[in-house]
Amino acid sequence: MTRRIAIVSAVGVTGETVPQATTRGPSWDGRFTVLILFLPPALLLFTLFVVLPIGEAAWYSGFNWNGFGRPTNWIGFDNYRFVLETRAFWLALRNNGLIIAVSLAVQLPLALTLALMLAERFRGAVALRMLFFMPYILAEIATGLIFSFVYDGDYGLVASIWRTFGAEAPHLLASTDTAMLAVLIVIVWKYFGFHMMLFIAALQSLDKSLIEAARIDGATRSQALRHVVIPLLYPTIRLSVFFAVVGSLQLFDLVMPLTRGGPADSSNTMVSFLYNNGISRMRVGYGSAIGVILFVICVTFAFTYKRWFMRDE
Amino acid sequence: MSSAETTRAPFDPAVLFKAAFLAVVAIFVLVPLLATLLGGFKSLGELRVNPFGWPTHWEWQNYADILFSGRYWQLLRNSLIISTLTVTLTLITASMAAFTFAHVKFYGSSMLLSYLTLGLLFPAATAVLPLFIKVRDLGLLDTYFGVALPQVAFSLAMSVLLLRRFFRDIPHELLEAALVDGCSYVKFFRYVTLPLSRPILATVGTITFVNSWNAYLLPLVMLNTDALYPWPLGIMVYQGEYSSEWHLILAFITLTILPTIILFLLAQKHIVAGLTAGAVKG
């Protein structure tokens, strides 16, 4: 106690230098306590359930192992070879590519257009924003089930539209030609609202004076949009692309109720491929190899994208 | 942006186009949801001939059967337990770590922070098999904690980043003054930082809750007993049992997404702020 009082009085006298003395002096104990008490729970959980499993995946991927006992049957890189020789793996990779392509070609322009419309104030704008955002917070499982009804060949909405035109209703999810297309439509339905919200948030924090300046200088609305607003949104567009890619690489829940990756692996994503071939059959080594490949893709993408496109942020 | 000449002239073709475009998108979003809600009120026979329209005969029995079955409530209870565990543990561990990173200078601080943010780079799915084996070896398979603890671990990275940014804005002079007055770091955290940080805690809590409430893969891998299933697993089992009795499945879907929609309407601000702001500045 006496020491603290001394310091308090010292602050009054010498001003600047003394607060340093307080942080170094008596409160070192305090800082030490915080370090000992506050950091370990988070670090421990993170290490145990996130970092170690990734390392172990690399280790297990060298074995032919069904998960029971200890892994003993070391087969080197064979699991990776098996994965790369599987046609379904390349189909899954292609599907992830398709999802990214549709996100860029359909979802992003749609989200941006809607954001430009709804960032303005008019009656119902907020309600529409909320409506468009709602699919994003619904569980992917529920969304998938809703759309497996929509697509159902006997009871579904699509079938009923078909029948009003007198045509035989297709079973969209049961055909290798249409299953992935059907999944892609659901993806746009579920995620465009999220990207729209990103753009609205960005539009609302834009410096309005830049747009006004352009208008005063004689730019038309569409010129101001093309040459001022869109360029100002580039950071958000890059971010939106980033989320589209990352989201595609982890897409799983949505696919399961719709198609389970089928028919004939035509609508698998990387994660549903991992689930169908590694997890559900407890092929730990093989599944871990898929996991490691997915990990490498994710990390490589994140680093190169950040380096190339998001250097300033 | 909204200039007077376009919003006030009612017959401007641009306005008309805009209204039509918004209407089409609204219909695209609404129709599947409304058809699901209404489908639960129809009989299977009516659903087949009239999947879009109002029910000609309101079949309350579908909803009533589910609401009076123990099954529905058990699924919601399990989901609530797992989500509450996940949110509580995430908020406690993440806020303590974030406080340390924000206010305590120590050697290796920035290194440890980047270590934690590695978690943002890849999804839980990549390591789910080793994770399963780890949880099994810890004896947590088929328990609520076996699902909640990995979920906490995977939500830590984002949570710590969001909380730390907020904590850092609390003036450092406040902490120094409190320390000088004999307050400890721990007490400052408990009585100053946390009460001042309610908005960000609510935001982080809401994101974590929504993610955990909707999660499918981790519970699918970690749980074997039906009695412990959260609702996304339960609804898949239900769909498997009643494979083409869509009127029942639609009623079940409606009832299970109802809590999410109610929460969304109540906590819009936190949900939108959390799910987008975290992304924008994270």
TrEMBL record, chain A:
The keyword Heme does not apply. GO terms for biological process: transmembrane transport. It is found in: Cell membrane. Keywords: Cell membrane, Membrane, Transmembrane, Transmembrane helix, Transport. Pfam families: BPD_transp_1. The chain crosses the membrane at residues 32-55, 98-119, 131-151, 179-203, 224-246, 284-305. PROSITE patterns: ABC_TM1 (PS50928). Belongs to the binding-protein-dependent transport system permease family. This is Sugar ABC transporter permease. The lineage of its organism: Bacteria, Pseudomonadati, Pseudomonadota, Alphaproteobacteria, Hyphomicrobiales.
UniProtKB/TrEMBL annotation, chain B:
It is a multi-pass membrane protein. InterPro entries: MetI-like, MetI-like_sf. It is found in: Cell membrane. Pfam families: BPD_transp_1 (PF00528). Residues 76-267 form the ABC transmembrane type-1 domain. The chain crosses the membrane at residues 20-41, 80-101, 113-133, 145-163, 200-223, 246-267. CDD domains: TM_PBP2. Keywords: Cell membrane, Membrane, Transmembrane, Transmembrane helix, Transport. One of its GO terms (cellular component) is plasma membrane. One of its GO terms (biological process) is transmembrane transport. Belongs to the binding-protein-dependent transport system permease family. This is Carbohydrate ABC transporter permease. It comes from Bradyrhizobium cytisi.
